[in-house]
Here is the input.
Amino acid sequence: MKKRKYTLYAWVFVILGAGVLNGCTKEKAEAIKVTVEQFRIEAIAAINQLKNIVKQSIEMPAQDENKLIDDLEQEDTIDYDKIKLLLAERDIGAAEADVIDEKMQELEGQYNLFASMFNSLPKGSFFAAKAVERAQKHAINLTVQLINFAQQIKENKIAVKANAKRILLVGQINQNKSIQDPVLRRQHLKNAAQSLRELYEEESRIKNMAIIQCLKAAETGRQVAQMIRDYKSLTVGEVLTLSQQSLGLVSEISDQSAYIEPLLKKYQAIETTIKSDPYWKNLLDEKIIQ
Amino acid sequence: MDNDAKMLEAMGDAVTRLQIKYRASSISDRMTMKPDLEKLTRDYVDFQLKLIQEGVITTDADLEEMEDIRREIDNAARTQEIVQAIARTIAFIAKRFI
Here is the structure.
């Protein structure tokens, strides 16, 4: 009787043990899932910034009401086609904005799909090691994409231009220049010069923040790829440390406006580290855009 | 600045210049200019998105594989639940009846 009991216990042990040896503990799986979710959140934030940048580059300022009154006054007659134009003018750029949204949703979908792969991992941690291994390639591709986007912004292949503000500024300066009183004109032009400087600073800030966000997301992606690569060999403690590091990146960037320059330097250093890591270097040499 | 960046800047400047001209024009002139403005804006956005696409590595085949991996991990979760249930049953039997 005792022998049969031990045999049954042995079977239970063998079934669970086989799973544990092949897979990982639930804690490790949970930590990976959390880091992957963090990667998804950071990547989507980066894509949102790209989306806003592209939309801003074509944005026109809303038409001034006084200008509309002047226009109506100037026209000899107003027919239906003119009214139709005035009504349709509000939608200029709307079709292009939809195209931009569609493209960015497609990109977001890649990161959402990647994160969704790990939803059941904690419940299937014993038997999912092989599947997790296959996910490594995709973690790498999605990470390299973010480095590419940062690179494109740096090289002005993604245009950072607060277009509507630029257009308003042109109008403002020309209006100021037409003021007859020299003292008043100078005062207004001084304000315009201030607006010009503010616009330069705003566009620089948008550009730097987008680079930072892409690199921050890439760093989280690198950690995910490392966790996947060393899924079997990492201890629970090591996985938790990596997971905490990725969460730490989020909290440190909360006060972004005050620390933009140091942050940019920090993330550019991370980018350099990724690019000089022998493992990543080979992958990047093959996949990064030139 | 490489050629793509130069081209993008030139196209963006052309869009902005035409927008400024458009805003300053009369209703009649705007009727003539609107199709050109829309075409130029569309070309500019298309070029911008083409450049962004050059940085994208993930292919449709990759997306299919990711779907496949998701199914595999979901299946692993189901298998694990069954195995754990069997193990619990065996342990219960062993404890109670043997």
